[in-house]
Amino acid sequence: MPTPSIVSQSKGPNQPNLAKRLLFPNSTGDIPPLFSSPNTPPELTAEVYDFIALALRAFVNPWWTKITRYDKQFLPDITRILTHVVRALETRVHGRDLAPLVFRDVPTIVTQHYRDYRNAEAKANSSYASGGALPIPVLFHNLQPHMAVSADGSIDEEYMRQIIDHILKSCLPPEDYAPDPERFVIREIVLKILLKDVIPKITQPWFIHKIILDQLGQDDMVLPESRPESPAASPLSFHTLIVVFLSAIQTLSGTCLAMINAYKQAVSTIKRVNQTPTRPPISRRVSTPLPVPLSPSISASSSVSSYTPSQDTTLTSNPPSAPLTNDYALPALYLVSEIFSTQARMAASSIMHPLLLLAVSFTPFLDRQVATLPFDASADVVNPRLLPYLLMQALSPKLLLTTIRNAKRTLFPNGYPAPPPIDPTLEEQAQMRARLLAYRGKSGWVETHILPLFLGPDPSMTLATAIDPLSSRECNVHLIMLLLDCIIGTLFPELWGQ
C-alpha cells in the first residue's frame, strides 16, 4: 500500500479555510479585521467569520447557486454589509452604559411579569374572566398588552421586520443600505432565526426548566424524598475522640483559610474598583426629569413599549448638583422577593429586610455615581463602582468567544444545520419539573437549616409557585418581547424618539 507523500500531508493545513474561500475568494492575504477595537483577540475574529460563513453556506448558497453558478461576489457583498453592522454594534455597545439595563431594567421587567401573571391567575375563576371562560394567557395579555404580540403568543412579523430594517439603516452607510437584495437577505435570515428558531424554543416552559437544571448541575435522577438512614452511633472511645478532634481542627483550618482568601479577594477587588479611571464627561440633553417610583411596580409594557420622552427644557442657571446614584442592587432583591414570595412568610421577610437595608447602606459603593459638572449642566462625570465594574469584567471578549463557539457547535455540529431536535414528551417534561421541585442543594446543612427559613416548611410548594409564572408559552413570549424591546431601545435610543 503506497504511503502518502509529504506534499499531500502538508497541503491540508495550508488550504484556505471556509471563511476565506466563501467570504474572501479574491483575497490572497489574511482575512481583514472584523472588529474596530485593536485589542480584539484574533481567535474571536476567526470564530465570528467562520460562523458567518457557515450561516451563508447553509441559508444563502443553496438557492443562490440555482440562480447563477458564476457570480461569486454575492456572498462577499453580504459579508461586507455584516462587517459594517458588527462594527456599528460594537461601537454602540462600548458607547452605551449597560449597567442600568442589566441591574435595573431587566429585573424590573421580570418582576412585573411575575406580578401580572399572578394577578391573571387570581382572576382566572372570577367574573373578570367571564366566569372562568377566559384562560390565563388572555387575562395576562390584557394586563400586559404588546402591539406585536397577540393573546395566543404569535408575533407580528412586520414589527420585527421593521426593527431589523431600522437597525440596518442605523448601522450601514447609505451606499450599502440603498441596494435592496443584500439588505433583504440579511433581514430575512435574522427574522427567520428569531421567529422560527430562537423565540419559539426559549419560550417553552420545559426549555426554561432545562436551563435552570443545567445551571444547578442536578443529576437526571429525581432526588429521593426520604434521606437514607444514618448508621447507628458507635460507642464513645478514645479513638473516636481523636478522630472528632482532628476533624474539627481540619474544618476550622479550612474555614479560616477560606475566610482569609475571601478577605484578600475582597480587598483586591475594592482596590481595583477605586482605581478604575473616571469616565470622561458624557454630554446629555437636559430634559424634565421623569418621576421615579419607590418600588418597581410600573407596568413593563408602559415603561418599554409606549415610552415617550418629555420635551426639552432650557435651564438658564444650574447650580452644582449633588452626586446622583442609581439603585442597581435593589431591583434584583425585589425580583428575588417576588419570585419566592418572601412577603408571605415571616422568616423569609426577616432575611430579605436586612439585605435591603444593607443594599441601601452600601449604595454609594455598589452603584454607579454620576456627578454633574458645575460649569456644564449637560455633561456628567461617571465614577464606576462595584456592580458596574463586575459587569465590565464579565462582558469580555472571552465571553463572546465562548458564546460564538457554543452557538456554532449547536447550530452547525457537522458544518451544516443540525436537524431540529425532538421536543421532550409530556412525561419527560413532567420529570424535568419534578427534578427541579426536588432540588435541595448540594449541602445537607443548607437543606436542614437554610431552606426551611427561606422557602418555608414545604420547599417544593414554594419552588412550584416560583416557576409557575414561567409555565405559559404565551406569557413567556410577552416577556421575551419586552426584554428584546428594552435591549434594542438601549442600543438604539432613536427608536424611542430620543
Automatic annotation (TrEMBL):
Residues 274-322 are annotated as: Disordered. SMART domains: PXA. Residues 41-220 form the PXA domain. GO terms for molecular function: phosphatidylinositol binding. Residues 295-310 have a biased composition (Low complexity). InterPro entries: Phox_assoc. PANTHER family: SORTING NEXIN (PTHR22775), SORTING NEXIN-13 (PTHR22775:SF3). This is PXA domain-containing protein. It comes from Mycena indigotica. The lineage of its organism: Eukaryota, Fungi, Dikarya, Basidiomycota, Agaricomycotina.
